[in-house]
Amino acid sequence: QVQLVESGGGSVQAGGSLRLSCAASGDSFTWYYIGWFRQRPGKEREIVAAIREYDGRKSYADSALGRFTISRDAAKNTVVLQMTNLKPEDTGNYSCALREDQGSAFAIGSYSHWGQGTQVTVSS
Question: Confidence band (pLDDT; 50, 70, 90) for 98?
Answer without folding.
Answer: very high
